[in-house]
Amino acid sequence: MLKLYAMLLSLIFLIVLVAAVVGFVFRHEIKTNFESNLNLALRDYNVTADRHSEAVDTIQRTLHCCGVQNYSDWERTEYFTQRGIPRSCCKSQDDCSEEDLKDPSKAKLKGCFFLVTSTMESKMSVVAGISFGIACFQDVWPSPL
To answer: Does the keyword Magnesium apply (predicted)?
Structure first.
């Protein structure tokens, strides 16, 4: 039973180590892929309960941002020509009229791409620290075998 426990801990450590290395090695590809997918989500944005549109709204509301690089990304979308910016882009969620949606000065200024990637990078350092701590703990803990 103790051998199985030790093997399981080793397997978990290897999985965490491989995930951390893959994430670090492919971080630029992950960022590029995220940016292109966010641009696609803006281009195809609609008011219906589309999961991509809901994700864009959630990101914009949560991180207090608008667009990929900034609010002007919305100006290149079909949605903007018909309705303006989405309500999730308004500086004031409580006081955002139909006229405000057509006025880019009412939009949040920061773009979402930088905020999302910097948030992910800050969380990755926490994950790396925890993984390192677990690895050290496994090496220090006396083997029951």
So the answer is: no
